[in-house]
Sequence to fold (446 residues):
Amino acid sequence: MASAAEQLAANVNFGAFAKATELKKRIWFTLGALIVYRLGTFIPLPGIDPIVLEEIFQANQGGVLGMFNMFAGGALGRMTIFALNIMPYISAAIIMQLMTSISPTLEQMKKEGESGRKRINQYTRYLTVLICLLQAYGISVGIESMQGSQGPAVPEPGPFFRFAVVVTLTGGTIFLMWLGEQVTARGVGNGISLIIFAGIVAELPSALAGTFEMGRTGALPTVIIIGILILAVAVIMLCVFVERAQRRILIQYPKRQKGNKMMGGESSHLPLKLNTAGVIPPIFASSLLLMPITVITLSAGQGPEWMNAAAAYLGRGSPAYMTIYIGMIVFFAFFYTAVVFNVNDTADNLKKYGGFIPGIRPGKNTAEYLDRVLTRLTCVGALYLAVVCAIPELLISEFGVPFYFGGTSLLIVVTVTLDTVTQIQSHLIAHQYEGLIKKQRLRGRR
Fold:
């Protein structure tokens, strides 16, 4: 028999949406924030020649630059104020989560609750600024060394240009970080994920048109285009299936006698997702891998010999690149799962409230059982992420199709869409519950 929440979710319709004023305000706020973000991806950096930069980028877009440009929503190819996008913040969040697992001070701070979480978030912002300064300076130096057929990319290089680029790119990332936090608090969905999602979706039509143009000119066989589209649909279906898959562990609560009544005795389920880490491992892996490779790629030909060799060795689709990429995805799948789901805390909470898993003793045995189940699920989830992200990467590097049909981009689009729809549905259910409570109060007054 379906639960009351499930029955209520089934009855959610457009009429309920029309009456949910707060939800409509949240959606409009989210759309407005994403429009502001997209406008910023067209404002160029000061002191650059956009025509020369576009020529240089077109010659290198098949490599790592193309994938970084995908995460930046095209801002890197246009070298705009949002060229760094939100990736420095993600890198800072990765480092802080690693430090939280290593440093006893940060671990204790995490256990302090809301106040500790705010302090860790503040440290993450400071670290984001530091990473932005380093990356922006590296990009400014790399742009100065670029030469196109029509001349240098920077007509007037020097300390003032570097300072302007560092300030502009750092300010752009800080603004996106603030904008993402505002969307999370006052909009619908996770703001940081939605910013990346908006960048990918906005460039999808031009990527699709470019793919069809390659087929028209004969650069890409029609059979390959059809196969890639079929593969994209298959990846989307696989993502939806796996992201919805759960392992439900039965939780039993003992009966208690209170006066002349027997209380308790209910049973519930502890849902464990097959892919607990979600889209975080590919984003983390791409964030940590792309920036150093991008700097190496930008400096290739102007730097030392070892840098040129590294650029060739870590090329798109190369064995070294794929090995590092898959290894980082698997690592972050296990790491992030351990961060978001602490088996010891879950076992202690079950024991505290009298819950137990049938056939498993409370406490340490429950923690070991949950850890064993979660490890097996994470193995399958990590394999799924590696396959979804790696196979399209090989096809893209082999046939030169746009990166927007890759596994990482499709995974981000599907996951963020599912999470956002789930949040919208939760708001609608909460609104309907409020309506039912108000009706009950009016009946009670009569």
Observations:
- The domain at 4-445 is CATH 1.10.3370.10 (Preprotein translocase SecY subunit).
- Residues 407-445 form the longest helix (39 residues).
- The chain has one domain: 4-445.
